[in-house]
Write a structure and sequence with these properties.
It contains 4 helices and no strands. The protein is mostly helical.
Length: about 150
């Protein structure tokens, strides 16, 4: 208890919080200056216009398309394999037979991964070509206005 105000009340909590902050924060109110004084502080500088948007490169479009397609196909294969194994095990339990887990690979995971990769290949190709054209147009607009 300090000066008749309990710390358990809301007024006491506010007073305790303000006292702690006044001990931590210097009088100017700039906490960062207290922690990191001198030339080590970061300063805001405006980025040059030439570095604002990198030049779009057409040869990176197929690379990005193939990488994203491969990663999505891999993820689709893993998820469909997990679901396929669970389905084969549940089916084996219901029928009372030993489950053949190779059918989860052959009948479920590989066809699902092929379908997923086909859809992702088409979608990512469209999106990347659209992104490349938009970046190219924005670059021309920046060159004309700057």
């Amino acid at each position: 208890m300090r000066r008749g105000i309990s710390v358990n009340t809301s007024a006491g909590k506010r007073m305790a919080r303000s006292r702690i902050l006044s001990e931590i924060e210097p009088a100017g109110g700039d906490f960062l200056a207290h922690v990191c004084p001198g030339p080590a502080r970061a300063k805001m500088q405006q980025m040059p216009a030439s570095m604002a948007h990198p030049l779009p490169r057409w040869y990176l479009v197929p690379v990005r398309v193939l990488v994203v397609t491969f990663l999505c196909a891999l993820l689709g294969f893993a998820v469909s394999l997990l679901l396929g194994i669970l389905g084969v095990v549940v089916r084996g339990r219901i029928r009372g037979v030993h489950p053949n887990l190779t059918s989860a690979y052959r009948s479920i995971a590989i066809p699902a991964a092929a379908a997923i990769s086909g859809v992702v290949l088409i979608a990512v190709t469209v999106l990347e070509i659209r992104r490349y054209r938009q970046a190219k147009a924005l670059r021309k607009i920046e060159a004309a206005s700057g």
